[in-house]
Fold this protein.
Amino acid sequence: MSKRIEVTDLNVYYGDFRAVEDVTMAIEPKAITAFIGPSGCGKSTFLRTLNRMHEVVPGARVEGEVLLDGENLYGPGVDPVRVRRQVGMVFQRPNPFPTMSIKENVLAGINLNNRRMPASEKDALAERALRGANLWDEVKNRLDAPGSGLSGGQQQRLCIARAIAMEPQVLLMDEPCSALDPISTLAIEDLMAKLKEEYTIVIVTHNMQQAARISDVTAFFNIAGTGSPGRLIESGPTEKIFSVPDVKATEDYISGRFG
Amino acid sequence: MSQQSMIRADAEPASHHHPDPKRVGDRVFSGLATGSGVLILVILALVAAFLLIQGTPALLADPAKLTAQGYGPFAEWVAPYVFGTLWAAALALFLAVPVSIGIALFISHYAPRRLAQPLGYVIDLLAAVPSVVFGLWGAAVLAPAVQPMWAWLNANLGFIPLFGGQASGTGRTILTAAIVLATMVLPIITSLCREVFLQAPKLHEEAALALGATHWEMIKMAVLPFARPGIIAAVMLGLGRALGETMAVAMVLSGGRQISFQLLTSENPNTIAATIAQNFPEAFGLKVNQLIAAGLVLFVITLAVNTIARWIVARRAQYSGAN
Ligand SMILES: Nc1ncnc2c1ncn2[C@@H]1O[C@H](COP(=O)(O)OP(=O)(O)OP(=O)(O)O)[C@@H](O)[C@H]1O
Ligand SMILES: [Mg+2]
């Protein structure tokens, strides 16, 4: 249920603009990897190359390799649709489908893949996903109400339920808590700690405490200046990055945020 | 600096006496806006009053008198034209709506940007073609061109009631008229749908794609549900145009008074608008009242269509929230 990601010499472009330069790193399964770095350094861009969502932007392209347990996501003949079914994604702003009920939202991915699944099995799956996202108790009595009627934090957990209902290998999260209050944020952090037992999790965050609290590995990205590409400065065990990083810029960034 | 603030402090109380220019602008604008709103209502009321006052004599007249001096008892006379109006408009929409939605989706979600823009312009240009030109084209080009096809349909699929009857030798049938009408409503529906499709939230499109939806599945999940009220509004606007269109129908169709669903014969129901246009020049006395009363009927139909459209859009609005 969880796979290792290996990225080799990855360059990411929007048209002629190189947004991310020469990233090489490994992302371990059953662990939380946090991406930190200043705004515009390409964290989201890099994250979106891991499930081939990057190429949805017109003119965007990628050079290099991303291996998911040895299989190159950018190999010839690989269907991006299949990649996205294995690598789930949660966005910065909660985005449940407004015309669907809570249950339909959770099953949205399943209904794409596996329409024939019997209704009872679908119900069981929806319950499992909602329990997995720590949302079941709050919505079990209104599964047929519109998903957009939930609070922001509940909507975000609904989106997580929607992603894990697909039983992906990897779960990517781009600042999943930045639109949420501290209580909802804690709920989602607890959830991530639980999910990492089953999934490879990658999270982008601007919240240093959050990265320190929940992640096992931290990767720091930076840019030299506007217009220049983002680079991976260093990555390593979170305790190390937050106490004795190898690079001065990492320390500056982290302490600047704390100071 | 301090001088400036002193001036300002001085100027402050003065503004209570002399309204400052901004407020004058506001007032002029709100006056103009209210005025135009009222003007539209007044015009609408005047039109309705005209139709009612001039049409009522025909509505209240003794059927015998209408037979002698008019076109015959009103309800009996107007019924085929009401049918023809609705039938022609329904056929036109049936042809135009799928094509419009297809083109709009192509422009908004499939075509590369370099192709999408010119295509959008061309569609908008189509809306600028005068209806009389469409009429000419329908009668002179389209009808002869489709005649063999209609004859073939009639010969081979004639057992289907829609294609039954005696095929027209000129091609000037209600189906041909419906194609012309469809061409005329296509740009309205297409450009409105395109606008709505373009407004579909990126957020939801990406949510669908990230779940492993194909492009078409993404459109079904994230674009069409969001766009539904807009599509309905666009279709209703198109319907409004198709119901009221006069020239194209009058020029293509030699309409009569049949109530018939057959598409390919030369015996076709005429529409209200075309009937009024064709008969008004020679009409006098009660006949004029009768034609105006038919206009009233058309007005009511169009009003009803608009009201239903608004009701549908309002009812859907709460479910499509881009919140
Ligand atoms: N759709 C796009 N088209 C063109 N350039 C883009 C696009 N999205 C991002 N960029 C550029 O790519 C670079 C990296 O952006 P990205 O969004 O990945 O940064 P980020 O690290 O996620 O920033 P933040 O922390 O603010 O979310 C920026 O210079 C940005 O302007
Ligand atoms: Mg970002």
Summary: The radius of gyration of chain B is 26 Å. Chain B has one domain: 61-319. The pocket of adenosine-5'-triphosphate (ligand 1) is lined by residues A 14, 17, 19, 37, 39-45, 57, 230 (CB under 6 Å). The longest helix of chain B spans residues 21-60.
